[in-house]
Amino acid sequence: MVNQVSLSPDGPLVSDVIYGTWRLLADEPRPTVADLASRFELCLELGITTLDTAEIYGRYTVEAAIGEVFRARPDLRDRFTLVTKCGIDVPSEEKATARLPHYNASADNLVACAEKSLRLLQVDCIDVLLVHRPDWLCRADDTAAGLNRLIAEGKIRHAGVSNYTWHQYELLSACVDRPLVTNQIEASLLRMDALYDGTLAQCEQRGVRPMAWSPLAGGRLFDPQNEAAVRVRRCLDGLRDKYDGAADDALAFAWVMAHPSRPVTIIGTNQPDRIRSQARASQIRLDRQDWYALWEAAQGHSVP
Ligand SMILES: NC(=O)c1ccc[n+]([C@@H]2O[C@H](COP(=O)([O-])OP(=O)(O)OC[C@H]3O[C@@H](n4cnc5c(N)ncnc54)[C@H](OP(=O)(O)O)[C@@H]3O)[C@@H](O)[C@H]2O)c1
């Protein structure tokens, strides 16, 4: 079973492997409400009790699809901690004034987006709202005012950010009434920036678990043309027996989760067998030298 953990000292309880919905509607034919409900049930059976979504996913269609599942199956809603994100505007029917893709983390926009998410998701309260991307034109106190208002009005329980540098996180933290509960960032064997740029160190210092998106590098880890991926997979294959037959994907998730900031990871597959496999990562503790062997395989050289 997937572990339940506290996201931050005053944060919500989440599963340390989360189900992500970026690609939820990507398959053809489009999954029905019943298909999605059975996928969510599988998650719950495995102990995956947290769903990650965003206003923009499926070009503003995924939140409504999740809402349809909750309408048909109200019993499912209460069993999930629901995370959504807002603040990315791309030209579309929903964003009539957007002439080009841009970020908008102003208070008024965050409040309007969160209120729309509540309607589409068909819920009374969002457990965790994340500012999807830092908006370089928005003052931190403006973004914070939106998050503070949403919490005060009971529309969201917790606030956090995504893709923030640690400086941006500190700046916003100084303005919010309640501590931010996470920074959702890209992290995988093929994307290690957060190890080096202070993002994970800051999470560790604050006792805030990062949420790692694209833990399989968006599938690039399985690309036979990608030399780093081929080296990593050779190394992963050699570890399988030692970790009780865990597949490459589970071990790659476990590599991300081993960092002392204790990242939680977000699953992106739509395939039930892969969901099962990746959920196993919650129970895997990689040996120090196996972790470094994978680092070495990814980088193509040993540690300096
Ligand atoms: N905050 C942000 O800015 C941000 C950005 C991106 C994503 N996210 C979140 O993170 C979640 C996960 O991201 P992601 O979808 O990029 O995760 P990922 O696990 O890195 O990539 C998923 C892709 O890898 C493929 N895949 C998964 N397991 C595989 C396996 N065992 N063998 C071969 N291919 C495999 C999947 O294809 P199949 O479906 O065919 O298995 C899918 O195309 C998203 O759903 C979203 O919730 C957040």
Provide an overview of this structure:
This protein has 304 residues and is an alpha/beta fold. The protein has a single domain (4-299), classed as TIM Barrel (Alpha-Beta Barrel). Helix content is 41%, strand content 15%. The protein contains 13 helices and twelve strands. It has helices at residues 33-46, 57-60, 62-72, 74-77, 107-121, 140-152, 166-173, 193-196, 199-206, 227-239, 248-257, 272-279, 288-299; strands spanning 4-6, 13-15, 17-20, 50-52, 81-86, 88-89, 102-103, 126-131, 156-162, 183-186, 211-213, 264-267. It has an eight-stranded parallel beta barrel, surrounded by four helices. A two-stranded antiparallel sheet has the order 1-2. It has a two-stranded antiparallel ribbon with strand order 6-7. β9 (156-162), α7 (166-173) and β10 (183-186) form a beta-alpha-beta unit. α10 runs antiparallel to α13. The longest helix is centred in the middle third of the chain and has 15 residues, at 107-121.
